[in-house]
Amino acid sequence: MLESRLERAAALLARLPAQPLLGDANWAALLDAVTVQETQLFRSPAQLELIERRLPPLLLRARAEGRALRLLSAGCATGEEAFTLAAIGLHQARAHAPGAAVEVVGVDVSRPALRSAAEGGIGLRLGAPLANVPAQYRAWLEGEGGQPFLHPSLRAIVRFERASLLELPVSLGDFDVILCRNVLIYMDNMARGQVVTGLTERLLPGGMLALGVTDSAPGGAFRPAGLAVFYHG
Ligand SMILES: C[S@@+](CC[C@H](N)C(=O)[O-])C[C@H]1O[C@@H](n2cnc3c(N)ncnc32)[C@H](O)[C@@H]1O
């Protein structure tokens, strides 16, 4: 598998312009060929519990401001992380801030991953896709016979967009919570710093950036003041 990936990548590399743009056909094909889409519903559940606990005040604030709570899955792969955030957001809204709206955006560079995400085919390639889903979230994600199922309410609040975390479009707006996990591990120091700085600039006041345990940011990448950053495995 690695060999065939490298063969495809080598052929595409030779056809790249000096500074490829995201829309360049060969660059897009290369990104499709070399990116790793491993993901899971409720991956790293301990960190998600931390986010869950911080949502009620953020939901109440968003509702008071007359806007939706905004959550970003940065490097969303096939969408499981975005749908996980949607389930947590809606569940917490029902429990603590009835009537509060929730909006989730998933961003990635991989076209096949985004196609799969848009189709909502959660966990199709995994052996036990619901293994990490806590009991209180099962109704959102489990159908008859214990099969993965995407509740229409989740589908309705999640959208996906192709963009690079190295240059997020301004049109994405700002977020209350940004989850960026198992993405920076594939980048060099300069790119990691650029991504983390860019993501912190997209946080609403009091917002929260959650990085995976492998997604360490190089020193100096943060703007200091009052920013909540959580690393967790
Ligand atoms: C291993 S998956 C992680 C998925 C999910 N965040 C999780 O932890 O389960 C990494 C994803 O990051 C995406 N990615 C890598 N570099 C990116 C970039 N510069 N901009 C957007 N997405 C990127 C890849 O295409 C891939 O889908």
In the CATH hierarchy, what is the class of the largest domain? Alpha Beta
Q: Helix count, per DSSP?
A: 8
| CATH topology term of the largest domain | Rossmann fold
Oligomeric state of this protein: single chain
In N-to-C order, the SSE pattern is HHHEHEHHHEEHEE
Gyration radius, rounded: 18 Å
Domain module count? 2
End-to-end separation: 27 Å
Strand content: 15-25%
Please provide the count of β strands: 6
Question: CATH homologous superfamily of the largest domain - what is it?
Answer: Vaccinia Virus protein VP39
Could you give a short account of the major beta sheet? 6 strands, parallel
What's the shape?
globular
Question: Could you estimate the helical fraction of the residues in percent?
Answer: 25-40%
Strand order of the largest sheet: 3-2-1-4-5-6
CATH architecture of the largest domain: 3-Layer(aba) Sandwich
What does the average pLDDT come to? 88
